[in-house]
Specification:
Helix content: 55-70%
Shape: elongated
Structural class: mainly alpha
Largest sheet: none
Number of domains: 2
Family: Belongs to the TRAP transporter small permease family.
Transmembrane segments: 12-32, 47-65, 86-107, 127-145
Order of helices and strands: HHHH
Number of helices: 4
Radius of gyration: 20 Å
Keywords: Cell inner membrane, Cell membrane, Membrane, Transmembrane, Transmembrane helix, Transport
Membrane topology: Multi-pass membrane protein
Domain Tripartite ATP-independent periplasmic transporters DctQ component: 23-149
Strand content: under 5%
Length: 167
Amino acid sequence: MKSILDWIKRIADGVAVIMLAAMFLIFCAQILSRYVFNAPIGWSSELLLTLWLWVIFWAGAFCLQHKDHIRFDLLYLNVPNKAKRVFLIIAAVGVIVGFGASFLPTWDYITFYKIKKSAILKWRLDYVFSIYGVFLGVIILRYVYDLIRYLNPNFEVEDDKDGQVKE
């Protein structure tokens, strides 16, 4: 199971790298076209914005570990392990409930955008913004998995040197 998850993580990281490399190449082409050939290309800005949106939510869903996300852990780091476990459970439930409550309205809003298209490339905006729905779904699933782990009676909080839970 771990090797399958490692394989999936490598693929997700590779997709993020490809998107970032494409952004870099498009940005260089835009600079070359504008300042060397004096012929700006309009589609590059729209494609860069779309790729940036996708790489942010793709990486947030598939590439980043929990310790890579922003945390407000001043209190968490200064309580005993039993209290840390309670905090982890409360945080997981909060994320699941909060993101879960927003999932269907968000997906409804994203699918509403099928009637609109981007200005230059004429891409349907529901395709452009669908990555946020994917992000919400993956984060919910990750926290459901974590909640199951935290509720397991054999689960013990193991902090690394930064006070973050080991994954």
